[in-house]
What does this fold into?
Amino acid sequence: MRIALDRDSQTPLYRQICRFLEGQINNGGLAADTRLPASRDLAVSLGVGRLTVNNAYAELESKGLIYRIPGSGTFVLQQSPAQPAEGVAAGIESLPAWQQALLDQPGKSAAQRQDELIESARSAGLISFAEGGGDWHLFPQDDFRKALMTVLKQDDARVLSYGDTAGFLPLRQTISRILVSQGIPANQEQVLITSGSQQALALILKQLVPPGECVLVENPTHMGFIDLCHANGVRMLEAPLDEQGMLIEAAEKHLNSGRVRLIYTVPNFQNPSGACLSSGRRRQLVNLAAAYGVPILEDDFVGDLRYKGQAQPALKALDKSGYVIYVGTFSKMLIPALRIGYVLCEGPLYGRLLAAKHSADIGTSTLMQRALDAYINVGRYEACLRRARSVYGRRRQAMLTALARTMPRGVTWSSPAGGLFIWLKLPEPLTADDLFVRASAAHVIYTPGSLFTPTGAPSPWLRLNFALHPPPLIESGVQRLADVIRRVLSP
Ligand code: PMP
It folds into this structure.
């Protein structure tokens, strides 16, 4: 342990040690039951006498901040809720000016607001349909552990070093193979591995849309993309969507204005609406992009989670003139904690993204990339996908059936063919934002639709994730939500 001691100060060294540790214990930096260094070791590392450390520890003990177990060591005692540490200002007014300047900047992101909503509702027995991922019970923990162990046992130091910024070559080859099997022309030189697909979206937006310029988005759309636009000072022009995806006429109107630098779309089982862009609209959109000379950012975050009907071709597969940049991820189909996504693109953009990726984080974890590649190549990925499709498909049906059975008249919802989400509309004059507090009091939550719109204005829409729970919990959760809506409609 290091402690900055001022040897010229009037304050004795033991007091300085005591003050530092007291501050960190009260501040929560040293949690309850943390073992403090043995007094001899601390004395050596601080270059002070052992008696000095013993005196500091004695004072901390007399203040009820630490306890000793003979033969075991000295430990931090549980404290009441964190107090500001000495030297750390308590009120906003005592913050330094550079910190206060940050307070004037735009408020919380949609993702932060969602986290706060979920946190505010946390209670025993809560049924949450709010989160954006799959059910962690289905994550292939044992198989993935084996893949990780296989990699760690390799006698190859490169496993633990920085890797190629573009990504681990065999994994890029594996991804190309998967893409080609989906009819998307690809090779490893065009695949860039990113730290989650969110990083891919961030890098691409930054390269293609300068601050103050416009991106065309579906409304509603992925809140993470809205947050990115706000953070980069990029303006959003909105095209509404229906169950067949983005309304192409609205998109064309914006393209006609000449202001659009990039089109962002989630064509498969869109987040949050679950809409799937029809094949006709896919072709129209790709043709429009070429006609107006505007690139498309195709975010295929759950394309493989289809429960009904035939897969539609990716926009990238329809693109004959080089206008589509394709982004994929393993977060929803496999494990979010991998933080592995990828971009498929070519030309100078690839080099630009590579350089930007290097300056952002040097590269995505080599260890995780190698483990993922090992996992996919023992044939586990396909099996895991089949299981997810089968389980989530049943849950989707369970939620649709429960909604039909319980919801009062006037409530409507989508019936997505895949993905994770059902998009539900409350009857006027209800808003999902107002209803949230009542729903959470009834121990059921969702994500309000306002978080998926560029303005964040209150909305009658809400997003339900049907993949998170087994059917009996889905049924109880939907019943609770229906009861809340009914009570609000006819108090
Ligand atoms: N795109 C969409 C549509 C998403 O919903 C998300 C995450 N919720 C992402 C991209 C980013 O996911 P990740 O970074 O985990 O790949």
About this structure: The chain has three domains: 13-100, 110-138+385-489, 141-381.
